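Take a record:
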Amino acid sequence: MEKKMTKRALQAQETKQKIYRCGTELFRKHGYQNVSVEQIAQAAGVGIGTLYHYYPSKADLYGEMFIRADDFFCAFEEPGVLEQPPEEVLLEYFRQYARLNEGMGMEYVQLLAIPKNREIFQGNENFELILEKLLAGYQSDGRASRRRTAAQWRGYLMTCARGVVFDWVIHNAPDYDLTAWMDFVMGEVIKPLLQTEE
């Protein structure tokens, strides 16, 4: 029998969610560097001590955006996804990756490039493991090359996809269509993976 949450536990969950929502909205509007802990607390209608209870630092709150990014990739764990054509599934995976980065914004991507910020996001790359499982599945049924391991292919594909995101940040142009460019580049990049003649 599932245990019901107490009123206090529900209230705590709602408070944390409200802080998260207000913080992410402010980050997206103004950028991480331009938002203070005080502004987040005020927007959420809580005291600074309450905010620190749920998020020990502004960076922890920002990092949770990355943790929740895994939700973007749940569809790729659904039963039957391996029955679909690998090229279609992989291209859609990288379209999702582009959409995720667009949603987070350029400043988010720039923060990831700073080594001291990487520790915030360590251990939260489940979406990459989802890709690796897909690749292993395609290899096991002979629809993907076995010249490299699934982990090596995953590393190669993610390096290329990050390159597209980096290019988007460098250009910082309003007419840069990240999803369309990701689609084009990754369409070319996955070709050797799908050549199964060993």
Observations:
- The radius of gyration is 20 Å.
- The chain has ten helices and no strands.
- The mean pLDDT is 86.
- The first helix runs from residue 7 to 30.
